[in-house]
Amino acid sequence: MAPFPASGHPAAEAYLADGYERVVGMSSRFAAAICARLLRLQTEEGVSGPIAEIGAFEGRFFIALAHALEPGEIALGIDIFEWPNPEVRERFEANCLKYGIAPEQRVTIKGDAGAMAPAELLAHARGERLRFIHVDGEHSRAALSKDLALATACLSEGGLIVLDDMLHPGYPTLMVAVQDYLEANPGVVPLCIIDRETIVGATKFVLCQRDWFERYQAALLEIFKEQIWPLGADFEPHWCLVLSLDTRLAEIT
C-alpha cells in the first residue's frame, strides 16, 4: 500500500492525525490530505483567496481544508443544516472551535447552494472569487448540476472544483451529471481522481481549468509520485492521474 501523502501544513497534519476521525462524517482522510496539499500547491503557484465547501455537515472535511489556508484567507461552510436534525449547525460550529478554526477564519452559511446566485456567494467571500470549492451537497443529478454551475461561476483563475462521492454505488447517476457538465464546459477538465479509501470514504474528482492542467499535472506527478496508479483515468479523450493508496496493477497469468 502507498503511504498517506503529507498535507504540507503542520496544523492540517495534526488535525488529520488526531481529530479527523473524531468528527462525524464520511469523507476519507486520504482525500483530505491530498486536498490540503492541493491548496498548498495553489499557494506555490500564486493562486490565493477564499475556499468553500457545499455540504459542510459537522465539519470533518471543512476543518482540514481551513487548516490549509494562508493567513487572512477564509473558508465558507455552506449547508442547509437540517439533517439529521437542526442541531447539526451547533455541532459544526463546536467542532470548528474545538479543532482550531476561529470564527474570523470562516463564514457559516445556512441555505441551499442550488438556490444561491453567484453574486450572493461571492458577497459572503468578501467579493473575492473562490480558489477551491468542495461539492458534497445533495446527491442528485439536478442538485449536482446546480452546484457545478455555481462553482464554475465563482471560481478564480487557477481554481479547483472537487466533487465528492463520484462512482459511488449508492449514487450512480451523479456521473451522468458530471459528463454532461464536462461536455458543456470544454474549458474545464478532470485534473485527477482521488481513489476511494472505503465504500464510505468514496472517490473524488478534481476539476481544473484546461489552461492550468499541464501546469498542475507536472507538479502532481512529483508531489504524489508514491500514490499514482500507473494506468490513470481515460475520460475519452482526456486523460488524467489516479491517486490511490493501492497502486498495484492486476496480475495477469
What this model shows, in words?
Pfam families: Methyltransf_24. It is an enzyme of class 2 (transferase). With 253 residues, the chain is α/β, with parallel strands linked by helices. The protein has one domain (10-243): Rossmann fold (3-Layer(aba) Sandwich). 35% of the residues lie in helices and 21% in strands. The protein has 8 helices and 9 strands. A 9-stranded mixed sheet has the order 3-2-1-4-5-7-6-9-8, with helices on both faces. Helix 3 links the parallel strand 1 and strand 2 (75-79). Helix 2 (29-44) runs parallel beside helix 3. The longest helix is centred in the N-terminal third of the chain and has 16 residues, at 29-44. The chain starts with 9 loop residues before the first helix and ends in a 10-residue tail after the last strand.
Q: Which residue ranges are poorly predicted, with pLDDT under 50 across at least 5 consecutive positions?
A: none
Say what the CATH topology is: Rossmann fold
Number of strands: 9
Describe the sheet with the most strands: 9 strands, mixed
- Return the CATH class: Alpha Beta
The percent range for strand residues is 15-25%
- Let me know the average pLDDT: 95
Tally the helices. 8
Proportion of residues in helical segments: 25-40%
> Could you say what the CATH architecture is?
3-Layer(aba) Sandwich
Overall 3D shape: globular
For the record, what is the CATH homologous superfamily label?
A: Vaccinia Virus protein VP39
Q: What's the domain count?
A: 1
Protein name: Class I SAM-dependent methyltransferase
InterPro entries: SAM-dependent_MTases_sf
EC number: 2.1.1.-
Keywords: Methyltransferase, Transferase
